[in-house]
């Protein structure tokens, strides 16, 4: 059950951001996601969208995780990003679509690179 009173969750890490460097587990973001999963929060206000993630694919995951649990995401820096509005939901879907395109393109690039490397190895005068 969601709390009816307003409460504040301090999700930021030591540097004032939801994310830290990529080797760390990002405890601030993990607290936000855990609160969303347990139904403790219903609105998340971020200073900037990039406070959630620096990578498009991960941002799409986080936004989908929050919105699928009924958490409204609002950006203080960009009031147009409010998942309770049609425009805000559109932006979330665009971010998700861009993430999917990036992922598909990255997979295709890896496949092409492997194919090229294999062909180069097969044509090498040092091969076999």
Describe the fold and architecture.
- There is one protein chain.
- The chain has 128 residues and is mainly alpha-helical.
- Helices cover 49% and strands 6% of the residues.
- It has helices at 27-38, 56-68, 86-123, and strands at 43-46, 72-75.
- A two-stranded parallel ribbon has the order 1-2.
- The longest helix has 38 residues, at 86-123.
- The protein is elongated and about 65 Å long.
- Residues 1-6 have low confidence and may be disordered.
Sequence stretches where pLDDT stays below 50 over 5 or more residues: 1-6
Envelope shape: elongated
Radius of gyration: 20 Å
How does the major sheet shape up? 2 strands, parallel
Mean pLDDT: 79
| Spatial ordering of strands, largest sheet | 1-2
Task: Provide tags for this entry.
two-stranded parallel ribbon; disordered N terminus; single chain; elongated; 128 residues; mainly alpha; 49% helix
Helix-strand layout with pairing:
Layout: H1 27-38, E1 43-46, H2 56-68, E2 72-75, H3 86-123
Parallel strand pairs: 1-2
Helix pairs in contact: 2-3
Task: Describe, in short, the structure shown.
The chain has 128 residues and is mostly helical.
């Amino acid at each position: 059950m969601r709390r009816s009173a307003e409460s504040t969750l301090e999700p930021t890490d030591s540097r004032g951001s939801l994310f830290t460097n990529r080797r760390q587990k990002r405890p601030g973001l993990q607290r936000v996601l855990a609160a969303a999963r347990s139904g403790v929060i219903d609105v998340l206000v971020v200073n900037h969208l990039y406070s959630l993630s620096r990578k498009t694919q991960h941002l799409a995951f986080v936004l989908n995780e929050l919105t699928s649990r009924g958490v409204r995401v609002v950006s203080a820096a960009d009031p147009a990003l409010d998942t309770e509005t049609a425009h805000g939901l559109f932006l979330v879907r665009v971010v998700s679509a861009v993430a999917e395109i990036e992922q598909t393109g990255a997979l295709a690039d890896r496949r092409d690179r492997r194919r090229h490397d294999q062909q180069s190895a097969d044509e090498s005068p040092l091969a076999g």
